[in-house]
Specification:
4 copies of one chain form a homotetramer. With about 200 residues, the first copy, chain A, is mainly alpha-helical. In chain A, about 65% of the residues lie in helices and about 0% in strands. The first copy, chain A, has 2 domains: about 45 residues, Arc Repressor Mutant, subunit A (Orthogonal Bundle), CATH 1.10.10; about 130 residues, Tetracycline Repressor, domain 2 (Orthogonal Bundle), CATH 1.10.357. In chain A, helix 5 packs antiparallel against helix 9. The structure holds a DNA duplex (21 and 21 nucleotides).
Chain lengths: ~200, ~200, ~200, ~200
DNA sequence: CATGAATGAGTCTTCATTCAT
DNA sequence: CATGAATGAAGACTCATTCAT
């Protein structure tokens, strides 16, 4: 329980410090104020770089947003593969998934917020959060394997996925909004167990 | 089961047809393209009214968005009070809640979408969807009464609420995104039952 | 000295109270905030009438301004003819002119302000205040008669007029701006006498 | 008398040519058409720059107007200090003041017009022309020193100031309005002398 | 006569993006 | 690589004016 869990956050393009400063400043502002309310001048100020520098590293504001999104997704998937997929039983997977998301939220709320709210509705063509798209795939796969193995009862996979990801996302949302005051780590056990009650064969 | 359920959508200020046309056009566009990507000229075109008419009825684009939001919330609460609160047992309430939201989604997806995604993050100060704020209150109350009555097991109320509203919201989201192809009505029974498994004493 | 001096301010179009309310509200606002910063809605609020009423009585905002201007000029000329022109000696005329303007300022600052600042530069084609145009004529005539009579020394009539009207206007301006705290009546004697020193033969 | 008098008009921020072009175009238009009747597109056309350029150099139309005003005041004060304050006798000062204003009017009527009419009534909070505020201070000081030195008779200083500045302003006004057809330089001698008659001890 | 909802041209301003230095 | 002045299309909003009731 005391072993350190490291959340993957690979360095982007080593050597380009400026690019990283821009990335972080933009990520912070996009989450804080939203994509449209964040102007290039805002990022310029926050990152302490010049306008030109931004366009040197990203072809447009949109690409910058997409890049941040992509990074969030990649981190999510890497973490999921490493910590969730590797589990044997479905229950263990659900517990690991819960643990992953709750811990990550406490550790890097900005990134998780981007994953949840960064719904690039007005940016990207498709209208899905990470948790709807890549996260959905991952959750669905987990559910279907669980059913095949007879660990999860026969039910509509979408419903099963919705119970898992819906509950987790909602808890995170409540925590980020300040409506839950305790660290989410305290709820890992209970959340996973109750979700399991709804699904188990 | 066959009795017609009418969703409350009271007419605003009879006689002000234009106001209503503006309201509906804006609501549609805000959901479709998002608040910031919807310009006043867009609304003008969609509603077939003049720029001035919009500002005659709403003091600003923001107030227009707020008004739409408020209406959505009011309808939600009215429906909730009428259809859910009146139920006796907690299970019946959860079932009624599920039924309400799933049917409503099929009947007026635009309004429900506004309730879910209309998260006026960049508009209002607080960052909560209806389902986080008013909806949260409603769900929480339901949960706490259920616990007092011994129908729901003792657990963190936030978690219990998250299981209920998270699952419902996620199902609706998947449906609105086209990832669930069947009408949500088909899932009322199953969703309510499985949520109940996670909560019952 | 105690006899009541009445400043002419004939009623406009007896019977149309509304027109008068509009006139007064507009006059007040034009002086307070300037022509361009006063909107029709502003006048509607101040006068407590409807938009339509304004356009019923005046064909446009500009005409309203012109009407106010015209009225101010007419009052000025009527007062001038009655109180100044009737004087015998040039000194008496200057004294009467000074008295007229200073007393009027104390009695109806709004009207006088309109006369001075109401420079309808952006409204009318010509760029002259009352005091430049009609007032100029009046002053000039006074000056030229004084010269012919040998009371005023031979000098450029424009310069003579400028000394008279310039001094008076400046005093009024300082008073209206609050830089002179005593009523202008106290300065009638001194102002007239000193102006006279600059002009007398 | 034939020595060239140079009116101070220091260059602003060398290297920012555009800023200067904007400044001059706006100054011209504000004088010609008034602040409110001059639109940003008007300035864009007149200056031959882009909209953005204006906002790159000035934060708003209002700030632009204020900047022009400030510059006019600064030039006025610099000229006043250099040419008027340095004179020994009060008569010499009045003569120098007259000379300064009349010559300046002929040389840079736009700037002087801004000083006189640029009354930023609807822009600034206070309602005073340069000649009412900074100019007033300057004139008043001159008058009070003259009285202390026994050169000007004892009288209300406001009245004395009004005689001086009122006469000058009025002459300039008449000249700018085309009612005086000769260059004001021809009137320096006479104006100063007659003003002096009204004030001398 | 009076009303005030409706109009739409025009206003100031912002901001993503480019490019000469 | 980096800068930031310059661009201009597009945005939200205002307001004088009209007209059906």
């Amino acid at each position: 329980m005391a072993k350190e869990i490291v959340f993957r956050a690979e360095k982007r393009h080593a050597g380009t410090e400026l690019k990283d400063m821009i990335f972080k400043a933009a990520q912070k502002l996009f989450v804080e104020k939203g994509y449209h309310s964040t102007s290039i001048p805002d990022i310029v100020k926050e990152a302490g770089v010049s306008t030109g520098a931004i366009y040197h590293h990203y072809s447009s504001k949109e690409e910058l947003a997409r890049e941040i999104h992509k990074t969030a997704v990649q981190q999510f998937l890497a973490n999921f593969n490493e910590q969730v997929r590797t589990q044997k039983s479905t229950y263990a997977k659900i517990r690991a998934y819960t643990s992953l998301m709750f811990r990550w939220t406490e550790q890097d709320p900005v990134m998780v917020q981007y994953l949840l709210y960064g719904r690039p509705k007005e940016i990207l063509v498709r209208n899905l959060t990470v948790c709807s798209e890549e996260g959905l795939q991952a959750t669905r796969e987990m559910v279907e394997q669980g059913m095949e193995a007879g660990e999860i009862k026969t039910m509509n996979p979408c419903l099963a996925s919705a119970i898992i990801s819906g509950t987790l996302m909602r808890m995170i949302e409540l925590r980020l909004d300040g409506l839950i005051e305790h660290p989410l780590e305290e709820f890992i056990e209970a959340a996973a167990n109750n979700i399991w009650l709804a699904l188990k064969a």
